[in-house]
Design the sequence.
């Protein structure tokens, strides 16, 4: 399965690369009025640079998986903790945190390459070495503080209960919902500055749109995304009354009020169609199934010995499970991405009705240009990797609503 997932993963990147390269010399007709050949070619080059890195990522993570399992990496980390003779949950915690840290450190060179070579070359990077280093330290600190109590409690349940999968699942769901609820107000501000939108004219329009859509939130925020990169985006965060809509400052600077309203209407479309709750529901079902499989696997002798691990207990099972799941989960990726693209489509349609299709088209074109998103992705690559429909499909969908509206006005 590992070999299959690596071969398919790499084959997909070559497909995408060939497709993007093939369309590099002409801007697709639908965009030819708005996107220059120069920026189209820039997007193609940026996409190809990213694909080269993706291939290396696929290979390195496969090698890491082998090194941790058959190569004896997990046995080695265990041997660092066992002589300390701590009680089992603490040994497990030490082992898991060490594993996570080592795994993270091996990923670091690729992150550096992406940020300081690719993003830098295409003029997107605004991160300095200092910001990068501080981010890393903060991330390690926050992860340790947040995860340690969770891991300790989960390990205690796993070591002391027969049917632990259900109680661990309750613990996990409670933890992730709390984290989501706290994220916008507590965790995100550790990494970025958030300001309420301060433009009164824009605020008035947004209030009106929110009322029309029946949405209540703790406000619309601008985030200093420009601290790290020139990419622009908008997203939803938080749960219940704590939810927020966040615009990157880079996006606010490049879009006019009409376009911001249209992007916001798209985000509200996700809310209107209950996409956030659907995704949460899927995540909960997925984690319950995962824990049931883990509970069964942790009792199977072959699961450890087959992967070269000599310590048979719940914490090594947990890490083995985390390492091996992606190898199988990639088969389901097209299904997940399909559902995500359908949601994006619905949100676009909603925005076309609540705001203006043409304004959303304008905003999307600016976003594609600013993010150097390719307008000509390969369809099979996209079915595995694209959370959003291809540019052409989205714009054509929006154009059809624009024509409908015009038709209605003429009657
Ligand atoms: Zn969306």
Sequence:
């Amino acid at each position: 399965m590992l070999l299959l997932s690596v071969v398919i993963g790499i084959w997909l990147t070559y497909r995408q690369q060939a497709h993007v390269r093939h369309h590099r010399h002409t801007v697709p007709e639908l965009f030819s009025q708005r996107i220059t050949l120069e920026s189209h070619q820039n997007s193609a080059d940026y996409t190809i640079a990213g694909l080269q890195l993706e291939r290396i990522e696929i290979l390195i993570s496969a090698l890491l998986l082998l090194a941790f399992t058959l190569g004896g990496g997990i046995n080695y980390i265990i041997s660092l903790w066992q002589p300390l003779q701590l009680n089992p949950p603490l040994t497990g915690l030490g082992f898991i945190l060490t594993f996570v840290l080592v795994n993270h450190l091996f990923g670091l060179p690729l992150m550096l390459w992406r940020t300081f070579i690719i993003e830098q070359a295409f003029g997107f990077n605004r991160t300095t070495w200092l910001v990068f280093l501080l981010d890393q330290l903060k991330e390690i600190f926050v992860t340790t503080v947040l995860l340690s109590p969770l891991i300790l409690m989960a390990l205690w349940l796993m070591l002391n209960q027969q049917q632990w999968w259900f109680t661990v699942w309750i613990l996990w769901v409670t933890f992730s919902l709390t984290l989501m609820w706290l994220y916008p107000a507590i965790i995100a501000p550790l990494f970025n500055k958030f300001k309420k939108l301060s433009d009164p004219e824009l605020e008035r329009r947004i209030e009106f749109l929110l009322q029309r859509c029946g949405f209540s939130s703790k406000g619309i925020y601008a985030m200093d995304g420009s601290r790290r990169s020139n990419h622009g985006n908008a997203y939803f965060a938080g749960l219940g009354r704590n939810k927020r809509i966040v615009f990157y400052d880079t996006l606010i600077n490049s879009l006019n009020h009409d376009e911001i309203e249209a992007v916001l209407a798209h985000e509200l479309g996700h809310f209107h169609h209950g996409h956030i709750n659907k995704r949460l529901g899927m995540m909960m079902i997925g984690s319950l199934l995962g824990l049931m499989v883990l509970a069964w696997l942790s009792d199977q002798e072959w699961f450890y010995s087959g992967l070269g691990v000599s310590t048979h207990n719940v914490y090594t099972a947990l890490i083995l499970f985390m390492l091996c799941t992606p190898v199988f989960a990639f088969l389901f990726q097209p299904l997940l991405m399909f559902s995500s693209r359908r949601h994006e489509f619905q949100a676009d349609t909603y925005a076309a009705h609540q705001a203006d299709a043409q304004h959303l088209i304008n905003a999307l074109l600016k976003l594609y240009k600013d993010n150097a998103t390719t307008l000509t992705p390969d369809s099979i690559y996209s079915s595995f990797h694209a959370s959003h429909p291809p540019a052409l499909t989205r714009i054509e969908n929006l154009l059809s609503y624009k024509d409908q509206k015009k038709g209605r006005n003429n009657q």
